[in-house]
Amino acid sequence: METKITQLLDIEHPIIQGGMHYVGFAELAAAVSNAGGLGIITALTQGTPAKLEREIVKCKTLTNKPFGVNLTFLPSLDPPDYAGLVDVIIKEGVKVVETAGNNPQKWLPKLQESNIKVIHKCTSVRHALKAQDIGCDAVSVDGFECGGHPGEDDIPNFILLPRAADELTIPFVASGGMADGRSLVAALALGAEGINLGTRFIATQEAPVHDNVKEALLAATELDTKLVMRPLRNTERVLSNAAAKRLLEKEAALGENIKFQDIIPEVAGVYPKVMQEGQVDEGVWSCGMVAGLIHDLPTVKGLIDKIMQQAELTIADRLRAAS
Ligand SMILES: Cc1cc2nc3c(=O)[nH]c(=O)nc-3n(C[C@H](O)[C@H](O)[C@H](O)COP(=O)(O)O)c2cc1C
Predict the structure, then answer these.
(1) Looking at the structure, do residues 167 and 259 belong to the same domain, yes or no?
(2) Burial group, residue 162, by CB count within 10 angstroms (0-12, 13-18, 19+)
(3) 145 Cβ closer than 6 Å to some ligand 1 atom
(4) In angstroms, what is the span from residue 83 Cα to ligand 1's centroid?
């Protein structure tokens, strides 16, 4: 299947694995790229330029296909060395950068002068238009269903994607709630050029996370996510667990007086404990509503092949029968 995204990124299938904290390591990124999609290493999980460089070098030993790096810009009192991370990305010849969290304008000239394609992930049409105006090559449009940070507008993909299609001239991929071949065909129908998956890729053989995390995703339904940190205007969709319950109780009790300091036990430094040690109730961790569509733990290649087969069958059989 050829779309503007497969052409732009030089990949076989229009499927991207979004950056994921403590999930997007070289093993997963390489598996996705080897299977014909675009795998993405998450820079902030590595933290320093030297560690990111090691992870990129490792990924290059695992695949000779293109892969990307996610740069998430977060407000922080002690920001990571973004300039150093960008330098390493350029030095190592990475082909694609997924930016998220904030406007990537500052880094665009340097990245694009080095022939790196920049896909900005955003949750609203106005931010997607801004990304287009500043010269991003593509956008990833993240609907309200998504795992992670859906923004504050709460617009699901059935509205957000056609709205994006009406406004954008650069290609975009649909992100949030994408699970299978049906998702891909629906995304294409709504104007996207491909799909970006997060949560679904965690439930694969190669995802380098503890089995407890994969089991939790298998057990979860579409009813098992919660929105936390809304009063801080930093809304995150997370798996409904003991920590999410505690956090929501604090939000209810403290109301609009709540501060980040109040929720440190539930949010700070929890990813290594959850993803690596398997302490899935230790803190809140991102999970999309798509958990309700996850019933197996395939290999990454098995998943991607099945998505493509189902998409082609859906187009050939179901859509043709309806026409
Ligand atoms: C566990 C987890 C961690 C994530 N971490 C990041 C991150 O560090 N940076 C980022 O831009 N997006 C992050 N995301 C969002 C994904 O890249 C992707 O946009 C989102 O998962 C898509 O929605 P889906 O989960 O419904 O597929 C994360 C998502 C999950 C599930």
Answers:
(1) no
(2) middle
(3) yes
(4) 23
